[in-house]
Specification:
The protein is an alpha/beta fold. The protein has six domains: 86 residues, Response regulator (Rossmann fold), CATH 3.40.50.2300; 92 residues, 3-Layer(aba) Sandwich (Rossmann fold); 93 residues, Beta-Lactamase (2-Layer Sandwich), CATH 3.30.450; 181 residues, Rossmann fold (3-Layer(aba) Sandwich); 72 residues, Helicase, Ruva Protein, domain 3; 39 residues, Orthogonal Bundle (Arc Repressor Mutant, subunit A). Helix content is 45%, strand content 18%. It contains 27 helices and 22 strands. α2 crosses α3 and α21 packs across α23. The protein is elongated.
Length: 638
């Protein structure tokens, strides 16, 4: 079956078109039929079920097919000015009159510009318009033979007119008109092909989408209902297509979308014991809302996928999420550490970070990675103290099948391989045993690793950032750490200051953590101004980590809305605090008594700072902080 069907209403047009089709070399692409009016409509109805893309025909036959609502595009053979000029010439010829009176029975698609052309050519023209096939007989009966010299029209029109004894002319189409229609039909076939391909692509996307997809027309009729929607809603497409959406999804309000173009995102509804998320978006064509698309997701499934992805990424620690802007503090000591770290980040070399527990060594390591040329590559972190030495080795370097009892049958990549072209962070490097140190030294020297149980080396391009809270020089002297590895690691070093040496940062951190945990636990509390001074007195041996946990605990358990020094003392866990016996480890019961004590000591020592500090059993630095805290003016007297 060809894609183009040519329906000729008369034998003359049939033979003429057959010749033109042959001349154009389109015999295999066009099927030609002889049929008119009612028979043509029946033929067209059959062709729409036979994969025909376009119908070519003329005059009343074309109008009849179009009016019958056939779903195939119809290309009409036009009646050109040349065709009409030829008709008027033949009218003069058969009548022998210079200005014959011509009555033309024609459908609306045959009368374009005919009146102006008749005036130019001197024809007295009367048009008898036809709307349907029944009009042909009616219009013929209206013809007065005394006022008409010749009648022109289609095959049936001229047949009826000739029975009344009137001269007749059959309206004909020239070769040019037929060729133009055939070429137009070829363009439509190509366009329909592209349209069908796009429709098939859309259908494949819809049918195999993991989301439920429902399309609704402006009059709320369901047009698309994909297999996933069937599964999620436990409804068959054959039962829903063509139905009003309100009878199927009565829990959805589509009015805002269909009337105003409003999108609805993430509406959660329980359907058949399943929690589903519905999104509704308008279909807009030429700025008019023609319908809506409804997408459906199984929330449980989405959560499972999200959890799996998050666990995979976080468990392997391939992503560095912190940057230098996340490191809070304005103290000169911290600012200098950040400056040095940013300089280090630009150099692709091994880094050794010193710092007490809780000072933020991994925070700095991630920030260095994110500022380096490797920022788009993996960041792999491991705590060397968290694993036994034999397990640490297999994690770092990997192993092959059968390397040891219980090994994975397929073997396993080591962290160095996973970090290829990225950064590996070795926290607590001081806890690595001697054998592990030997293998790490080889990686640094040779830029290659060997899996346990293997005899092949694997080249790796990895930047190593190591960290320790111990003095490696002492460990070297004790024979617990390789000196050559130490010098390999300390190419670039970074010393992180403990919190007790970061002047002013305790208040900044307190403000940050209070705000963070207030939102997290939905609590409403704040610190009084003098409280920050008491927090600053504590040495915080666990540094920022200890301080953060203390603020979190305080936010959770405190019932007071305002945290004062007395409240701090109430909730301070002296029993379990590390270093609680050190100076400043406990909080005074109230601020007023301490302020009075300082004022009295200053007066007794005549405002001598050194003597006042000794009397209060604190150092000069602490005294100056308290003077600023309580806004005590020192007026020396002599």
């Amino acid at each position: 079956m060809s894609k183009i069907a040519f329906i000729a209403p008369d034998k003359q047009l049939y033979l003429q078109s057959k010749r033109i089709i042959r001349e154009l070399g389109l015999e295999t692409k066009i099927d030609i039929y002889l049929a008119r009016l009612k028979r043509a409509i029946t033929l067209a109805q059959r062709l729409q079920n036979e994969d025909v893309d376009v119908i070519v025909c003329r005059g009343g036959t074309a109008t009849s097919i179009i009016d019958s609502k056939i779903r195939i595009p119809v290309v009409e053979i036009p009646i050109t000015g040349q065709d009409l000029a030829q008709l008027f010439h033949e009218a003069k010829k058969i009548t022998g009159l210079a200005a014959p009176k011509l009555a033309m029975l024609a459908f609306r698609n045959m009368t374009h510009d005919i009146e102006s052309l008749s005036d130019i050519l001197g024809i007295k023209l009367t048009i008898l318009p036809l709307k349907n096939m029944n009009d042909i007989t009616t219009r013929n009966e209206e013809i007065d033979i005394s006022t008409v010299d010749v009648v022109a029209g289609g095959r049936r029109s001229v047949l009826l007119a000739s029975r009344k004894g009137i001269k007749t002319l059959l309206i004909k189409s020239g070769d040019f008109s037929i060729k133009s229609a055939l070429l137009e039909a070829k363009k439509i076939v190509l366009a329909r092909k592209i349209e069908k391909e796009q429709a098939q692509e859309f259908k494949a996307l819809v049918d195999f989408s993991s989301d439920g997809i429902i399309s609704v027309s402006q009059d709320r009729i369901i047009k698309v209902f994909n297999p996933t929607a069937e599964k999620l809603l436990n409804l068959a497409a054959k039962e829903t297509l063509g139905q009003n959406v309100d009878t199927i999804l009565n829990f959805l309000d589509l009015n805002p979308c269909l009337q105003n173009g409003q999108e609805l995102i993430g509406q959660t509804i329980q359907v058949n014991n399943n929690w589903l998320s519905f999104n509704i978006a308008p279909i807009v064509v030429d700025r008019l809302i023609t319908g809506a698309i409804i997408t459906i997701q199984d929330i449980t499934r989405v959560q499972e996928i999200e959890t799996k992805i998050r666990n995979d990424v976080l468990a392997r620690k391939f992503i560095a999420k912190y940057q230098f802007k996340d490191i809070i503090g304005n103290s000169p000591e911290l600012v200098e550490s950040k400056r040095i770290a940013q300089e280090i980040a630009s150099i692709d070399a091994t880094v050794l970070i010193y710092g007490e527990s809780g000072t933020g060594k991994e925070l700095f390591a991630q920030s260095i990675h994110n500022k380096s040329q490797r920022k788009n590559r993996p960041f792999v972190a491991i705590n060397c103290a968290a694993l036994p030495s034999n397990l640490l080795e297999s994690e770092l370097f990997g192993y092959v099948e059968g390397a040891f009892t219980g090994a994975n049958k397929k073997g396993k990549q080591g962290l160095f391989e996973m970090a290829h072209r990225g950064t590996i962070f070795l926290d607590e490097i001081s806890e690595m045993d001697k054998y592990g140190q030997n293998r790490l030294l080889r990686v640094l020297q040779e830029k290659q690793v060997m899996r346990l149980g293997d005899d092949k080396v694997i080249p790796v391009d990895v930047r190593i950032i190591a960290a320790t809270n111990k003095d490696l020089i002492d460990l070297i002297s004790e024979g617990q750490f390789r000196q050559d590895l130490f010098y390999r690691l300390k190419l670039l070093t970074l010393d992180l200051p403990p919190l007790r040496e970061r002047d002013g940062d305790v208040k900044l951190l307190a403000l940050h953590f209070v705000e963070l945990f207030r939102k997290k636990y939905n609590k409403n509390l704040d610190f009084s101004p003098e409280t920050y001074g008491f927090l600053d007195e504590h040495p915080w041996p666990g540094n920022v980590r200890e301080f953060m946990y203390f603020i979190e605990r305080l936010v959770i358990i405190a019932k007071e809305k305002t945290i004062t020094p007395a409240v701090l003392g109430k909730y301070w866990d002296r029993k379990h605090a590390v270093g609680h016996n050190k100076p400043g480890a406990s909080f005074p019961a109230a601020a007023k008594s301490e302020k009075d004590q300082i004022i009295e000591a200053l007066e007794a020592c005549k405002s001598n700072i050194s003597r006042t500090a000794r009397m209060l059993n604190i150092d000069r630095t602490t005294l100056y902080k308290k003077l600023r805290l309580y806004d005590i003016q020192v007026m020396k007297s002599y």
